[in-house]
Amino acid sequence: xxxxxxxxxxxxxxxxxxxxxxxxxxxxxxxxxxxxxxxxxxxxxxxxxxxxxxxxxxxxxxxxxxxxxxxxxxxxxxxxxxxxxxxxxxxxxxxxxxxxxxxxxxxxxxxxxxxxxxxxxxxxxxxxxxxxxxxxxxxxxxxxxxxxxxxxxxxxxxxxxxxxxxxxxxxxxxxxxxxxxxxxxxxxxxxxxxxxxxxxxxxxxxxxxxxxxxxxxxxxxxxxxxxxxxxxxxxxxxxxxxxxxxxxxxxxxxxxxxxxxxxxxxxxxxxxxxxxxxxxxxxxxxxxxxxxxxxxxxxxxxxxxxxxxxxxxxxxxxxxxxxxxxxxxxxxxxxxxxxxxxxxxxxxxxxxxxxxxxxxxxxxxxxxxxxxxxxxxxxxxxxxxxxxxxxxxxxxxxxxxxxxxxxxxxxxxxxxxxxxxxxxxxxxxxxxxxxxxxxxxxxxxxxxxxxxxxxxxx
Length: 458
Ligand SMILES: *[C@@H]1O[C@H](CO)[C@@H](O)[C@H](O)[C@H]1NC(C)=O
Ligand SMILES: *[C@@H]1O[C@H](CO)[C@@H](O)[C@H](O)[C@H]1NC(C)=O
Ligand SMILES: *[C@@H]1O[C@H](CO)[C@@H](O)[C@H](O)[C@H]1NC(C)=O
Ligand SMILES: *[C@@H]1O[C@H](CO)[C@@H](O)[C@H](O)[C@H]1NC(C)=O
Ligand SMILES: [Zn+2]
Hints:
metal-binding, Sphingomyelinase phosphodiesterase, 12 strands, Metallo-depent_PP-like, alpha/beta, Calcineurin-like_PHP
C-alpha cells in the first residue's frame, strides 16, 4: 500500500516541479543616509545622527560606525553588492526610512531635505539597476517632522509620488498624494500594496483618535477584494510593523484598535496576501498570524537595516525567492557586512557575505506560513539550537549575550502573538506576571538600555 502511495506522490509532484518558476527580488530597508558622517554640524559629534547625550565614537571608520547612520559610500557599497550577487531581480522592494535619525531643530531639516535624501537613494537604485521596478513604503523618518506623517496631502507625498510612482499609474499617484499609500502591479498576477503604516503609529500625533486615517483600511480591503476577484496575489510592504517588539515588550507601534483591524483584514484576505514585508526595528524577525482555528495563515517578515545605528545590527539586505505564478515565498537569503571588521582591517570595500539562507539554516522546506510555524515551534524547544541561531540572526551577529527568561519570553511571544491581548496571555503563561510589571522585567529593560537599544528608540 505504501508503495502505491509513494508512486502517487511522485506522479502528483512531477507536474508541480515542472511548472515551478522561481523568481528573485531584493528587499532593502532602513538606509538612514547621513550626509554629515565625519563632517557633523556640531564639532566633535562625528555625525548628526549620534543619539542625544551619547559619547561620540572614538575611532569612527570610513565605512560608518555603530553609533551613527551610514555615509554614502556604505549605501553605495550595499547597492553594488546586491548587483554583484544578483543584477537581474524581477523587482526591488524597500521598507522605507532613507532619512537619518536627526531631530534637532538646529539642523534646519525641511520637507525639501527629506525629498532630496529620498531622491538620492532612488537615483542610486535606478543607476545600478536600470529598468528594474523599485517600490518602497514611507518610513516614519521620511517626513519632517519625523513620525508626524499626515492623513492629508502635503509636499512630501506630492513630490515622492512623482519620484517613486511615475511608472505605476494615475491611481497609485493619486492615493499616494492623498495618504502616502498605493497599489501597483509587479507582474502578471502579482501586485504590491505599499502601506503608510506611519498613520497607525502611536507616536503620530496628527492621526491620533482616528479610526481609519486617510481611509487606508477601507481602501486596503477594497484593493484586496479586487485582487481576489482578479485572481491576483498581493505583497504588502510597510514600515512600522504590527505586533509587539521582540526585544522590548513595552514597545507596540500600531495603536491597539489599528493592530486589531489590521489582523482582521489579513485573516479575511490571507488567500490573497502572499507576503508581508515590514521594517522599522532594524532587527531580523517574523510574526505569525493564525486563523480562528489556530492554523498559520500569514507571516509578517521584518528585515534588518542597512544602518548599524545604536549598535543594533550589522548592515544587511535580503533576497527573497518566490514562485512567480503564485507569489508564494520559497526562501530568503540574508546578506550582511561586518562593519567592525571592515573598519579594523581598513578594507577598501565592505566585505558582503551570505549570513544565512532561511531554509538551509533553519531546516525548513520553504518560508510559507506553515513552514514558518514549524520554525516558530522549534524556537520553543529547550535546548533548541534553533533559538540560538534565530537570536544571533535577530541582531545580524551583533553580540547581545545570552537570551533567557524575560528576554526569551519576549522573543517567543512576539513571534507567536501579534494581537496585543493574546500577547499578554502568552506573556502571563511564560513569565507569570503582568507584562512589563515584574521586577526582572524592569531589569531586562535596563539591560537593554545599557546596550543603547531603548534610548531614542524609533
Ligand atoms: C560605488 O561603488 C562602486 C562599486 O564598488 C564604485 O565603483 C564607485 O566608485 C562607488 N561610488 C561611490 C561614490 O562611492
Ligand atoms: C540653520 O539656520 C540658521 C538660521 O538661518 C543658521 O544660522 C544655521 O547655520 C543653520 N544651521 C545649519 C546646520 O545649517
Ligand atoms: C543628493 O541630491 C542632491 C540634490 O540633487 C545632490 O546635491 C547631492 O549631491 C546628492 N547626494 C548624493 C550622495 O548623491
Ligand atoms: C566581525 O568581525 C570581528 C573581527 O573584526 C569579529 O570579532 C566578529 O565576530 C565578527 N562578527 C560577525 C557577526 O561576523
Ligand atoms: Zn529605521
